[in-house]
Amino acid sequence: MTATDAVAGAAAGAFARTAVAPIDRVKLIIQLRPTIQPFVSSSSSVAQHRTAWQIFRAILREEGVSSLWRGNAPTLLIEAGSTALNFVFFDRYKFASHSILTSMEHQYPSLREDNNGPDSRKRRILRSFVSGGLAGATTITFLYPLAFMRTRLAVDLGKTEKGERKFANGMSDVVKQIWRTDGLRGFYKGYGIALISVSMHRFVYLGGYDFIKSEYAATSTSKGANAKMQVAERFAAAQFVSMAASTLHYPLDCVRRRLMMEAGRTEEERRYRNTIHCFRKVWIEEGSRGFFLGLAPNLVRCIGSALVLVSYDEFKSILSGE
After folding, report:
1. Which spans in the chain are helix H?
2. pTM higher than the cut 0.90
3. Domain boundaries, position 246
4. Residue 129 belongs to a domain
5. Based on C-alpha coordinates, what's the Rg of the chain?
6. Domains contained in the chain, number
7. Which of left, alpha, beta for 321 (phi over 0: left; psi -120 to 50: alpha)?
């Protein structure tokens, strides 16, 4: 079923992320305002606004409707690729963990399967959450350069016709300029903290959703009821885990994206030397609020993340003929 998982995941990711791309761009501008303001053209007022609605209107006024999807090309590649890989790796890790947990039953009796009892629930929790975290870590390692390019394009502000954008030609400009100044390392700025951040997010996002579904199935089966959740129930569960995952990992996401912005800048222009320095500087200059800039639009964007989980189930059912 690996091919089905990959195709279903890619379709779900591309569909959902395109729908919420404008919200994501606004979120990134708010989140990264402190580090992009000194480098924005004087003719652009987008980064000077503080609320999501003001930024949204400024983008429309100064850059046009299509610019709301600026950076969507790498986003489609990221989301189609990452969603496909996330679900493929998630299923592979769940399969592998079953064998590992089975081999550990004699040493740790609490890990045995006991017909939906408390021990079986503990086993399902371990399989779901650990597999989710490992899937996220594996996927971000492969696709981090695309995530880097998406972030840089989304916060590249200015009017195209005046040639004021740093990356006026899109992804090709990002590749040329970052490679020239930083080489391959530039595309992995913030990777260390991203590995922790994304693993934490997928731990809750993928693991939590899978556990809720498996717990529902186990409970329903024991009661002789329908073991499959309805679409509305799955969407509610997906929305809950998506918002929880996004809120928990948001401070780490803030740091990794700020470190992404350092690539291509001279030593004098760079605000942050490394991850620890970034944490300290944000805390000193902006307080705890600095780690949560853009959280509100990000929570709205979670609708798209929930849609990924639910649409994946639906695409997989269609492709497998269920």
Report:
1. 2-31, 33-36, 52-63, 72-103, 118-154, 171-182, 191-222, 231-260, 275-286, 295-320
2. no
3. 2-86+141-202+230-320
4. no
5. 21
6. 1
7. left
